[in-house]
Amino acid sequence: MQFALLNEVNLHYQVIGSPASRPLLVFVNSLGTDFRIWRDVIVRLAGDYAILTYDMRGHGLSDVGRTPYSMALLADDLAALLGHIEARPAIICGVSVGGMVAQELYARRPDLVRALILCDTAAKMGDATSWNDRVAAIEADGIESIADAVIERWFSAAFRRLSPDFPGYRNMLIRQPMDGYIATCAALREADLSAQAPRIRVPTICIVGDQDGSAPPRLVADLAKAIPDSRFEVIRDCGHIPSIEQPERLVDIMRSFISLAGTEAISHVSH
């Protein structure tokens, strides 16, 4: 295991391959998960790319640190981690809140970003009432009290019914640090990156599962429309976390996008 003390927290991370010799792919997890959600994607990409994945503060094996969080703080953590490994500009792939961290990183440190892969995310997710209600429920009865409702939005009905792995992802959710989960909810409640999206000037693709209950396709399409010359892809038979439900399809999309980004020949979404 690898840890780095950055911004007053120990961040748990993993580097695979040499960022000095290969294009670097960075993976950023969603609320209530850790970097294990990228496993089936990483095994298909390792060797062709250098890979950095990490647990956001308040998740997995990373420290909780001071609370509440802001999107700026979460982006600064990633910037510090990229500096720690002496990375060149990277392709940042984030899902849900991880996609918002990727957007905020570009806004604050565009020198660190070569391209953006934004999965099942938006410029703004939810509203103050929904986040406050979620926090109140967790403070009263713990993360497990909201787990079934969250999982229903995360995964398609077929995955919940048929996948032998499904119970493990519920365990991942309910075992996250409660303080870190609540602090990240606060960051999501306060974050509105709408004004930043039109300023993105690196190759970008927005990807969404057609059965996503947390960031529905229309919401992700709106983000793609706001980002100049971005691409938009919908993954069929998939919920909120495509790296779990449809890793092969996600990897195919990523490889195609990265290949196009490398030649600066990104086709754009129809607005």
Structure description:
By secondary structure, this protein is α/β, with parallel strands linked by helices. It has one domain (2-262): Rossmann fold. It contains eleven helices and eight strands. An eight-stranded mixed sheet has the order 1-2-4-3-5-6-7-8, sandwiched between helices. Helix 1 crosses helix 11 (247-262). Residues 263-271 have low confidence and may be disordered.
SSE blueprint:
Elements: E1 2-6, E2 9-16, E3 24-28, H1 39-45, E4 50-54, H2 71-84, E5 90-95, H3 97-108, E6 113-119, H4 128-141, H5 144-154, H6 157-162, H7 166-174, H8 178-190, E7 204-209, H9 217-226, E8 231-235, H10 242-245, H11 247-262
Parallel strand pairs: 3-4, 3-5, 5-6, 6-7, 7-8
Antiparallel strand pairs: 1-2, 2-4
Counting helices, strands and paired strands, the structural category is alpha/beta
Shape: globular
CATH class placement: Alpha Beta
Rg from C-alpha positions?
A: 17 Å
Bin the helical content: 40-55%
Query: How many alpha or pi helices?
Result: 11
- Residue ranges: pLDDT <50 for 5 or more in a row? 263-271
Mean pLDDT: 95
Distance between the termini: 44 Å
Number of strands: 8
Query: Could you say how many structural domains there are in total?
Result: 1
- The CATH architecture category equals 3-Layer(aba) Sandwich
CATH topology heading: Rossmann fold
Q: Largest sheet, described in full? A: 8 strands, mixed
List the secondary-structure elements in sequence, H or E: EEEHEHEHEHHHHHEHEHH
**How large is the share of residues in beta strands?**
15-25%
CATH fourth-tier homologous superfamily: Alpha/Beta hydrolase fold, catalytic domain
Strand order of the biggest β-sheet? 1-2-4-3-5-6-7-8
